[in-house]
Design brief:
This protein is mainly alpha-helical. It has helices at residues 3-12, 18-45, 49-63, 65-75, 80-84, 90-100, 109-128.
Length: 129
């Protein structure tokens, strides 16, 4: 899964408006801060296993918003989102990534996908040189 593409498709939506881009960026940033903070608080203050498990899940799921936030910030630059989605079937990608965005609920999954994507791009650049 391409996490950068997920962020781009989510930011664009069906019409690609500027307000939507800002709302999605805010969602990603707030997701990181609130989920990680709340999860950390639960981990630090909980007495029971269940509450600690929920705290751990919140931290892991919240960290999934970090790469989304990073890519969204990069895609906010003038022309960056349009360049990312040039030649892409937006409607098809919206359908595909609507289902794939459920990975955000699997702790650290998007972090792992983003790291994997970054390493693959670096390997491709090294072999091209």
């Amino acid at each position: 899964m391409n996490v950068r593409r997920l962020a781009a498709i989510d930011m664009h939506g069906s019409r690609g408006t500027i307000p939507r881009r800002r709302i999605i960026l805010a969602e990603f940033l707030v997701g990181v801060v609130l989920m990680v903070t709340w999860g950390g608080w639960l981990l630090a203050s909980a007495n029971g296993f269940g509450t600690r498990a929920i705290g751990l899940w919140l931290v892991g799921a919240g960290l999934n918003y970090a790469p989304l936030s990073r890519y969204a910030l990069a895609l906010m630059r003038l022309g960056a989102l349009d360049a990312e989605l040039a030649g892409v079937d937006i409607d098809g990608e919206l359908r595909r990534y609507t289902v794939l965005q459920l990975w955000v609920f699997v702790p650290l999954s998007l972090v792992a996908f983003a790291v994997s994507n970054t390493l693959a791009r670096r390997r491709a650049r090294l072999t091209a040189d």
